[in-house]
Amino acid sequence: MTRNNETPADTPLLKVEDIHISFGGVAALTGVTFEVKGGEIFSLIGPNGSGKTVMMNCINGLYRPQKGNISFDGKLISGLSPHQRAEMGISRTFQKIELFSGMTVLDNIRLGRHIHLKSGILSSCLYVGKTAREEIESRKFIEEEIIDLLEIEHIRNHVTGMLPYGMQKRVELARALALNPKILLLDEPLAGLNLEEVEDMARFILDINEEKRWRVTCVLVEHDMGVVMDLSDRVMVLNFGEKIAEGIPHEIQDHPDVIKAYLGEVEELYVTRR
Question: If DSSP codes are grouped into helix, strand and coil, which group holds residue 146?
């Protein structure tokens, strides 16, 4: 399957400029600016309530900032709806699993492909021509690439709501990949997982980012500092809706404002994981 996910290194794929958003007079984000380069894993960290998920919602269009602009792949997207941004190649997972629990794993994943299906009503009813070709290509992509990558062949026909939480996390990631995204927004993909599941998910994220057939740029929100520091190319820190630091992992670890605001609370965990 042809991919258009590769963006030259050091080229900004995502630009977020001076974002301000408030809810009921309470500022959630204030003047946040950053860039995500094509091909990197860029992490957003910060204490609970610092604005990380709000930022993700602004990027994929669930929230509209009162001020500021967001550009993706060289185009201004601030006024676009979530589905228009998805068509451009922005996909995401959620902090709380958002799957159709009564549907099978395979059907949930297929929903992520709907935006690429362009057949008309007649060909869809008759299942001929373009519709048949699209269905065959979609099935091959899901079954030979996504299911194989995430090692979920054995649960493909299971009802999603009956699966363990860790497997549901994989299914949600699979659905996000079915979009064939250029950028993947991962909102706490490791939350609620045991140690073995955390290691598996971290490996999947690296594969998605590094393997030639994927090469997906990732924006990661996560509280597990060991994983963040191991996986990330760069890290940005939010506190009370403001950016307080940005840099490569070891710079963030040693930044006094970051230690005071966040890392000091989890330093023991990081040392243990190392």
Answer: helix
CA distance 62 to 264: 32
Q: Where are the CATH 3.40.50.300 domain residues in the chain?
A: 1-89+182-274
The answer to whether residues 72 and 90 touch, using CB atoms and an 8 Å cutoff, is yes
How many Cβ atoms sit within 10 Å of the Cβ of residue 48? 8
Neighbours of 18 (CB within 10 A): 13
Residue 12 vs residues 35, 97, 137: alpha-carbon distances, Å: 6, 29, 31
- Quote the pLDDT of residue 262: 59
- Buried (b) or exposed (e) across 71-101, using 16+ Cβ within 10 A? bbbeeebeebeeeebbeebbbbbbeebebee
Residues of the chain predicted below pLDDT 70: 1-10, 116-135, 262-274
Q: Are 21 and 29 in contact (CB under 8 A)?
A: yes
| pTM of the predicted model as reported, rounded to 2 decimal places | 0.85
Tokens (6 digits) for 202:
């971290």
Segment 170-220, tens digit of pLDDT: 999 999 999 999 999 999 999 999 999 999 999 999 999 999 889 999 999
Cα 7 to Cα 159: distance, rounded to the nearest angstrom: 37
Q: Is 143 exposed, middle or buried (0-12, 13-18, 19+ CB in 10 A)?
A: middle
In this structure, whether the domain defined by 1-89+182-274 belongs to CATH 2.70.98.40 is answered with: no
Question: 68 Cβ partners below 8 Å, 6+ apart?
Answer: 16, 17, 18, 19, 20, 31, 32, 33, 78
